[in-house]
UniProtKB/TrEMBL annotation:
It catalyses: ATP + protein L-histidine = ADP + protein N-phospho-L-histidine. Pfam families: CHASE2, HATPase_c, HisKA, PAS. SMART domains: CHASE2, HATPase_c, HisKA, PAS. This is histidine kinase. It comes from Solibacter usitatus (strain Ellin6076).
Length: 822
């Protein structure tokens, strides 16, 4: 986010770039005006040819005419006959682009003058010739007086060419050093055709009013003093731009050979009511001029490099006046404003092109802007008949692009220097400094002191070295912090203020049943479902408090954890914005188990052991105090022996369970043939079952796969299940032992036809010392540790034990042992 100072500096830089870019565009246009002229020629060629006007016809002194009448100049009788033939067709005007400055025979000159006079609408040509001596007087190559007197008007045929030799304009009027002046032949031809008198022609400030026609003029050329007397006359340098309809030969459809006209082979309708121009087109006569189309390539890939005959230049000039296609030139102020607008748009688009794929977007902006300038300029030229300031706009665009990118680069570089300084001076956020950067860049107290000073940013080499050093230190500190967090035994979770997990160590992943990386992006409330919800986390963030309580997480085993949650603030006081939530999960399962063991020992001592010890104490005291009958003494000794055995068995089973729970029992895994172990257990228990007429039914396939297990513990678990089934079944019932193998585990079912277990007792059936309170089992000896031992053995093998029971029908205990490659 930019500060107000930075924003003001940015605006100032932008305005400076606009001013410099627009000024550079105008200066280039002034100093390299040929580039602008070339751009106008290019626009004209890009536009392509225009339709050939139907009101203009050319009578050409071509190669066929030279072949017919001989080498030019001919006898003036030929031109006279041509004018007579044309006058019979009643054209609007006949413009003769041929000089008659030198006398021939009196008869020929008079005949030509008579023909011109009879036609009544002939305009003849004059040409202003410079002196061959530098600085000498200029003079007119004017028609003979008799011919000038007979003609309706005289016009000059001079065409103004630029430094590169291209003819783009004709002068409105030219004068020699004596003050004699003539208007352009094209303008005089139009005036005569329109029937406008000399009094109907008016010189306006930037135009020539030719009767009802207005001819805009370019008056940037200097004026000329033609009569340096007391009544000084000044001839302004007004010029009319020529809009060429195409390259040389564009008027061929309306061009007719003079020989054909004299011979009567051209119908009079071709000239009636038209502007008829007589001039040379033969290449040998040399009256040729370079036009903007000299480099034009048409749609058929034909290159038109030929020079244009002077009579076609005259035809193009007349067509401009008749069609009113006058191109205007933008003023310097307009060009400056347009260049500034282009520069501003360039800066705006470059600013908008920041972000992803910035280089491609900036390249697209630059290409698009260049194309837009050319396209808009072409449309203005085509539709508005304006010569657009393409050169100033392109120069301003290039300057703005370069300066804008340079300014952004310098600003980003200075901002990077500032960030480097802040990072370098951040103290304990970085690892301790090493030997530092060699050369003029030195360090003090673990931080660099050669940072950016002044308004010029440091160089790229300095930045690269500095960032390399700081990056190494930052990575070292980040690695240390990361390793430290991941090495914590407690589960550690960090979340954003919305409760989305951003970091978790391996312990947290193991506790929450996922990988550490898999937890990232998940909802903390969902992962702690049932312990903490989203509302609690929101309240924690709002109050900037902390939470601590114990939770239970169920997995392969149910474990207890202490959950601690606290918010992380942006400052040490805790009053800043909340950056996130940090939580820890401490495993207190062992403490719970120790407490449970303590409770079990107390229960064992106070309940299970106290009664038999009290009975043993009473019987021993009785035997010691009294003389008991031998038979009675023997019964009491047997009872004492049974109670001692029961206590020993109880203590042994309890210690076995305790060792299994604590992990003190060393597992001796081996490949176990399940059917052999089951058969051996059933053989041992069959005599006990036979005493109560209980039948043991076997449903054990002979092809059971071997499993990887501790043989002793596995046998003990199965033996406890079968013994319990026999012990708690009524006489004369059946106990069924079955086994089946699946793809990933082995199942052993022990089903009896006993009394069944009530549903309220099913959840506690595997607890230590728990026995189902039932009248039928009043005389059955037991400690309540057998099923608890089975559960521990199953879990040590990563398996489980489950029970299904229905009161009055019996129970089925299922032992599941995962299969392993044995």
């Amino acid at each position: 986010m930019l500060t107000s100072r930075a924003r003001a500096a940015k605006i100032g830089w932008s305005l400076a770039i606009l001013l410099v870019s627009a000024s550079a565009g105008i200066l280039v246009d002034w100093q390299m005006s040929g580039v602008s002229r070339y751009s106008r020629d290019w626009l004209m060629r890009l536009r392509g040819p225009l339709p050939v006007p139907e009101d203009i016809a050319i009578v050409a002194i071509d190669e066929a005419s030279i072949a017919r009448f001989g080498r030019f100049p001919w006898s003036r009788q030929v031109i006279a006959r041509t004018i007579d033939a044309l006058a019979a067709a009643h054209p609007k005007v006949i413009a003769v682009d041929v000089l008659f400055a030198d006398p021939t025979t009196q008869e020929d000159d008079d005949n030509l003058a008579h023909s011109i006079g009879r036609a009544g609408n002939v305009v003849v040509a004059a040409q202003l010739s410079d002196s061959p001596v530098h600085g000498g007087p200029s003079r007119w190559l004017a028609p003979l007086p008799v011919i000038e007197h007979a003609a309706k008007a005289v016009g000059h045929v001079n065409v103004q060419t630029e430094l590169e030799g291209v003819a783009r304009q004709i002068a409105e009027r030219l004068a020699d050093d004596s003050g004699r002046s003539y208007r352009a032949l094209a303008m005089e031809a139009v005036r005569v055709a329109d029937g406008t008198s000399e009094e109907g022609v008016t010189d306006a400030p930037h135009a020539l009013l030719l009767g009802s026609r207005t001819i805009p003029l370019d008056t940037t050329a200097p004026s000329t003093v033609i009569e340096p007397t007391e009544s000084t006359r000044v001839l302004r340098g007004g010029r009319m731009s020529i809009d060429y309809i195409g390259p040389a030969g564009s008027f061929n459809p309306v061009t007719y050979s003079l020989a054909d006209v004299v011979a009567g082979r051209v119908p009079p309708e071709k000239f009636r009511g038209k502007f008829v121009l007589i001039g040379a087109t033969a290449a040998s006569l040399g009256d040729r001029i370079t036009s903007p189309f000299v480099r034009y390539t048409d749609a058929r890939a034909d290159q038109h490099g030929a020079l244009m005959p002077g009579v076609e230049v005259l035809a193009n000039s007349i067509n401009v006046i008749l069609s009113g296609r006058y191109y205007s030139v933008t003023s310097d102020m307009t060009a400056f404003l347009l260049a500034a607008l282009v520069a501003a748009l360039t800066l705006m688009l470059l600013e908008a092109a920041q972000g992803g794929h910035e280089l491609l977007k900036q390249l697209g902006v630059l290409i698009g802007m260049a194309g837009l300038i050319v396209a808009v300029g072409y449309l203005a030229f085509l539709k508005l008949l304006v010569f657009p300031p393409i050169v100033p706009c392109l120069v301003a665009f290039m300057c703005a692009g370069v300066l804008g990118l340079l300014q952004r680069s310098m600003t980003a570089s200075a901002r990077l220097d500032q960030n480097i300084a802040e990072l370098a001076l951040s103290g304990d956020l970085l690892a301790p400094a090493g030997p530092g950067i060699p050369g003029p860049y030195h360090w003090a107290e673990g931080g660099p002191v050669s940072l950016s000073r002044g308004w010029l940013p440091k160089g790229l080499e300095w930045k690269a070295r500095m960032l390399s050093e700081l990056n190494g230190r930052l990575l070292d500190r980040a690695k240390f912090v990361n390793f430290a967090l991941r090495s914590i035994e407690d589960g550690l979770v960090i979340a954003d203020p919305d409760g989305r997990i951003t970091f978790a160590n391996r312990s947290a992943g193991a506790i929450l049943g996922a990988t550490a990386r898999g937890l990232v992006g998940q909802s903390l409330a969902q992962r702690l479902n049932g312990s903490v919800n989203a509302e609690v986390l929101a309240r924690l963030v709002a109050e900037r408090g902390h939470i601590e309580h114990e939770i239970t997480i169920r997995g392969s085993r149910m474990r207890q954890y202490t959950l601690r949650l606290a918010t992380v603030s942006a400052d040490d006081s805790g009053d800043g914005p909340v950056l996130g939530i940090v939580g820890s999960l401490s495993d207190v399962t062992r403490q719970h188990e120790l407490q449970q063991t303590k409770n079990d020992v107390i229960s064992l001592v106070s309940h299970e052991m106290r009664t038999p010890l009290t009975a043993i104490q009473g019987m021993t005291e009785l035997l010691a105090a009294y003389d008991v009958e031998p038979s009675r003494r023997r019964e009491m000794n047997l009872a004492i022996n049974d109670e001692v055995k029961r206590l020993a068995r109880m203590i042994t089973e309890y210690l076995d369970i305790t060792r299994l729970e604590s992990g003190a029992t060393q597992m001796r895994m081996a490949a176990v043939r399940v059917e052999s172990i089951l058969e051996r257990i059933l053989i041992l228990i069959e005599p006990i079952a036979a005493q109560r007429q209980i039948q043991l039914v076997r449903q054990i396939p002979a092809d059971l796969p071997a499993v990887l297990a501790d043989p002793d513990l596995f046998s003990r678990a199965v033996e406890n299940l079968v013994t319990n089934a026999v012990k708690y079944s009524p006489n004369g019932t059946t106990v069924t032992v079955s086994a089946r193998a699946e793809e990933d585990c082995l199942w052993i079912d022990v089903a009896d036809q006993g009394y069944g277990i009530p549903e309220t007792d099913l959840s506690r059936i595997f607890e230590k010392f728990y026995r189902v309170p039932r009248v039928q089992d009043a005389g059955v000896p037991g400690t309540g540790l057998g099923l608890s031992l089975v559960r521990e053995i199953a879990e040590l093998h990563h398996g489980s034990v489950a029970v299904r029971s229905e009161v009055g029908k019996g129970s089925t205990f299922t032992l599941r042992i995962p299969r392993s490659e044995a």
